[in-house]
Design a protein that fits this description.
single chain, 300 residues, mainly alpha, two-stranded antiparallel ribbon, 12 helices
């Protein structure tokens, strides 16, 4: 049952305090990654070596620290608290919702830009609501559920490995000329580590949104999406909320047409709050299932 208590404490700390505002360890890690990139940059082999050097030593260290009795349990709570970003996701999404409610499109576009990498300068309300809702659903997995999954499966070492891989994917996982080869290992590792959590997150969205009858639609939409992990999560969330996601976006002035996800009408500002509630309800479901599983294992 200690693992369930650790999860609760870490989640409550994040909800209460949010992410560390200064000296966030992931910012330091990103700086080290950029330094190493400048010295190892090259093809896939060099990129793979960089991933190993950056992830394996800290993951091994925290796996060892996590095994040190009560001190290890406290270290695990601290690591998970730093790894998850539920409060940050809420704050950024609510800022967009408030700007839209106040009919302040310029502020809404700026706040949307903090959540997504696409061009926001010409977005209308529907596009901003859709972009924010997609980010809420996808980051519900990346910044919350996947971290919890790897903490339960592999302890502090597992959550450290996942979060560092996720950070490297954000830095290097681009399909452009610079990172197509060097970032290949980081992108593939992130895909592998998110494979099971993304589908469990999608299942949670379906259960909490009473959307299991959309399973085959969700599966088909996920396979058509560039990333099947993100496709499962957003398709399930879109069907749970009965909102259609996907569609055309612009990156650096270049238009891209994406397949549709979900079902129903295009999102509105109010759907941002509905998306946050879906993530919250799914979190409650996850904690209940993990707690029940831990109780069964300790009383078997």
């Amino acid at each position: 049952m200690l693992i369930t208590l650790a999860l609760l404490v870490a989640v409550l700390l994040d909800r209460w305090l949010g992410e560390p505002r200064r000296w966030h360890p992931l910012n330091g890690f990103a700086a080290v990654a950029r330094w190493l990139e400048g010295r190892l940059y090259g093809g896939r082999l060099r990129g793979g070596l960089a991933v190993v050097l950056l992830i394996v030593p800290p993951a091994v260290l925290f796996a060892w620290l996590g095994a040190q009795g009560m001190a290890g349990w406290l270290i695990g709570i601290t690591v998970l608290y730093i790894a998850i970003g539920w409060r940050s996701l809420i704050d950024h999404a609510v800022a967009v919702r408030r700007a839209l409610d106040a009919a302040d499109p310029e502020t809404a576009r700026r706040c949307t830009g903090y959540l997504v990498g696409r061009d926001t300068g010409a977005m209308d309300e529907t596009q901003m609501a859709g972009a924010t809702l997609e980010s809420v659903l996808e980051n519900g997995n990346d910044a919350l559920f996947a971290a919890i999954f790897w903490f339960v499966v592999a302890g502090p070492g597992g959550v450290v490995a996942y979060r560092l891989a996720n950070t490297l994917d954000a830095l290097w996982g681009y399909r452009n000329d610079r990172y197509r080869d060097f970032g290949w290992a980081a992108a593939r590792l992130d895909d592998v580590l998110n494979f099971i959590p993304a589908r469990l997150t999608a299942l949670g969205y379906m259960l909490c949104g009473r959307a299991l009858h959309h399973f085959y639609r969700i599966a088909q939409q996920a396979q058509a999406w560039p990333s099947s992990n993100a496709g499962w999560v957003m398709a399930a969330g879109g069907c749970a909320l009965q909102r259609q996601l996907g569609g055309s976006v612009s990156y650096q002035g270049v238009a891209h047409e994406r397949p549709p996800l979900g079902t129903g009408a295009r999102p509105e500002a109010a759907d941002i709050g509905r998306g946050l509630r879906l993530v919250r309800n799914t979190l409650i479901l996850w904690l209940a299932v993990i707690g029940a599983g831990a109780w069964v294992l300790t009383h078997a």
